[in-house]
């Protein structure tokens, strides 16, 4: 079965990103597909490379990046939500006249069309967060 996942709550303030990660990991380990995860609203904050959690806590961004690398999962950050929260990839930073970017490895910025496409191409679309 193909699962599409939407994460709409930020890390460290809500369990949504952890629950989504654990679901995706379990699905993949059990032979299912997770072709894409779409990060929306505050969920886009999962994709910043600048967060530094304490060493004795989990690093949810690195967990997602590793999962994406290992299983070829497309981690998409909503461009509108990202810009509102100051998350930019290199292309957007240049286009907006900013001098830095902060998207973590394995994540990419795109629009809501990716969410719609994911809903069409998967068997189930599961949302984590409010």
CATH architecture: 3-Layer(aba) Sandwich
Quick one: biggest sheet?
A: 5 strands, parallel
Tally of strands: 5
Estimate the global geometry from the Cα principal axes: globular
CATH topological fold name: Hypothetical Protein Ychn, Chain: A
- What is the ordering of alpha helices and beta strands? EHEHEHHEHE
Helical amount:
25-40%
Average pLDDT value?
Answer: 96
Number of individual domains = 1
Radius of gyration, CA atoms, in whole angstroms: 14 Å
Structure classification = alpha/beta
Uncertain runs: none
- Chain oligomer state: single chain
Helical segment tally?
A: 5
CATH superfamily: DsrEFH-like
Going across the biggest sheet, name each strand in turn. 4-3-2-1-5
CATH class: Alpha Beta
Distance between the termini: 24 Å
User: What is the beta-strand fraction?
Assistant: 15-25%
Describe what this molecule looks like in 3D.
The chain is α/β, with parallel strands linked by helices and 130 residues long. The chain is 37% helix and 21% strand.
Considering the chains and any ligands shown, give keywords for the structure.
5 strands, 130 residues, Hypothetical Protein Ychn, Chain: A, alpha/beta, single chain, 5 helices
């Amino acid at each position: 079965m193909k699962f599409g996942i939407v994460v709409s709550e930020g890390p460290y303030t809500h369990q949504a990103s952890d629950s989504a990660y654990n679901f995706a990991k379990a699905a993949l380990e059990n032979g299912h597909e997770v072709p894409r995860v779409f990060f929306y609203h505050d969920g886009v904050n999962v994709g910043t490379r600048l967060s530094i959690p304490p060493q004795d806590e989990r690093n949810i961004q690195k967990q997602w990046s590793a999962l994406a690398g290992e299983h070829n999962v497309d981690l998409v950050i909503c461009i509108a939500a990202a810009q509102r929260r100051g998350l930019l990839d290199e292309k957007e930073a240049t286009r907006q006249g900013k001098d830095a970017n902060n998207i973590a490895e394995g994540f990419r910025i795109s629009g809501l069309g990716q969410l719609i496409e994911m809903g069409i191409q998967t068997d189930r679309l599961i949302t984590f967060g409010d």
